[in-house]
């Protein structure tokens, strides 16, 4: 017997639900049933799957493929989704929708943020179709915004390896409302396909939790434009005189405000 240990990042194995205890349990159960697997557990931080196995009975490459396939199967069946609920005018409306959806067979969790109008839910597609959930919400007198997917592009800072890029893709794909995430490591760019509005800051925070910095390309473009304008002013003789005069004026105000000795 040749016992080895492999560690798998849950952000990559379960990109839509790395922090969902139920989905992590389903993934663990699927791997535990493989011949050659001796034990499956979680890292102390709870963000990685740790698998001990007999390498003479199960090749490492086959184990990696098994984890990938099991993760895809869990993700495909147990959906984590964010819906935008419309026509709510009070917190009680939100509680009504939340409770009604949570009670549907096949729905494992439902949480509605009234301020954002965002309903985060997890459900088993084999037990309840998505349309049935939407129909129940509409029966209560509320609407569901069916928005077309849009694309957000970010500049990334701090990445120095291809594995970093894969980690960023995983954490961004796990943000509710993100349909897909792709990182161009060479050009340090992140492209996210999203459904719904107001996800920019959530994506930025997700990237920050992974240890990197993300900025919307529109913000980067504005910053570059401001820098270019300032550079242009400095390049002009009159512009330099104006900046010098402004600096002297500020200095005069500061000196005037200082108490005399």
N- and C-termini, Cα separation: 85 Å
Q: Spans of 5+ residues with little confidence (pLDDT < 50)?
A: none
- Number of distinct beta strands: 11
Strand order of the largest sheet: 5-6-4-7
The CATH topology assignment of the largest domain is: Alpha-Beta Plaits
What percent of residues are in strands?
25-35%
CATH architecture of the largest domain: 2-Layer Sandwich
Shape: flat
Order of helices and strands: EHHEEHEHEEHEEHEEHEHH
CATH class of the largest domain: Alpha Beta
Number of domains: 3
**How helical, in percent, are the residues?**
40-55%
Largest sheet: 4 strands, antiparallel
Structural class: alpha+beta
Summarize model confidence as the mean pLDDT.
85
Total helical elements: 9
Strand and helix layout:
Elements: E1 3-9, H1 10-13, H2 21-32, E2 37-42, E3 48-54, H3 60-77, E4 78-86, H4 91-102, E5 107-113, E6 118-124, H5 130-139, E7 143-145, E8 150-157, H6 162-173, E9 178-184, E10 189-194, H7 200-209, E11 213-216, H8 217-235, H9 237-257
Helix pairs in contact: 2-3, 8-9
Give a verbal description of the structure.
This protein has helices spanning 10-13, 21-32, 60-77, 91-102, 130-139, 162-173, 200-209, 217-235, 237-257; strands at residues 3-9, 37-42, 48-54, 78-86, 107-113, 118-124, 143-145, 150-157, 178-184, 189-194, 213-216. 45% of the residues lie in helices and 27% in strands. It starts with a strand and ends with a helix. With 261 residues, it is of the alpha+beta class. The mean pLDDT is 85. A hairpin with a 4-residue loop joins strand 5 (107-113) and strand 6 (118-124). It has 3 domains: 3-77, Alpha-Beta Plaits; 79-145, Alpha-Beta Plaits; 149-261, Alpha-Beta Plaits (2-Layer Sandwich), CATH 3.30.70. Helix 2 (21-32) crosses helix 3. It has 9 helices and 11 strands.
């Amino acid at each position: 017997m040749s016992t080895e240990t492999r560690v798998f990042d849950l952000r990559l194995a379960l990109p839509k639900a790395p922090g969902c205890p139920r989905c992590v349990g389903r993934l663990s159960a699927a791997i535990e049933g493989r011949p050659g697997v001796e034990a499956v557990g979680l890292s102390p931080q709870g963000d990685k799957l740790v698998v001990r196995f007999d390498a003479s009975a199960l090749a490492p490459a086959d184990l990696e493929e098994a984890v990938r396939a099991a993760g895809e199967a869990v993700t495909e069946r147990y959906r984590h989704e964010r819906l935008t609920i419309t026509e709510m005018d009070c917190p009680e409306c939100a509680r009504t929708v939340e409770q009604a959806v949570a009670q549907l067979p096949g729905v494992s969790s439902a949480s509605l943020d009234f301020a954002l109008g965002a309903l985060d839910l997890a459900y088993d597609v084999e037990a309840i179709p998505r349309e049935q959930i939407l129909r129940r919400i509409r029966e209560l007198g509320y609407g569901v915004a069916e928005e077309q997917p849009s694309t957000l592009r970010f500049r990334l800072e701090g990445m120095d390896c291809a594995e970093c890029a894969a980690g960023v893709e995983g954490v961004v794909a796990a943000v509710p409302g993100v349909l897909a995430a792709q990182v161009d490591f060479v050009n340090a760019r992140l492209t996210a396909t999203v459904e719904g509005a107001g996800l920019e800051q959530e994506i930025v925070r997700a990237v920050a939790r992974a240890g990197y910095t993300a900025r919307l390309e529109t913000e980067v473009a504005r910053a570059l434009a401001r820098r270019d304008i300032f550079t242009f002013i400095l390049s002009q003789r009159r512009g330099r005189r104006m900046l010098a005069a402004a600096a002297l004026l500020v200095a005069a105000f500061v000196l005037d405000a200082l108490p005399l000795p």
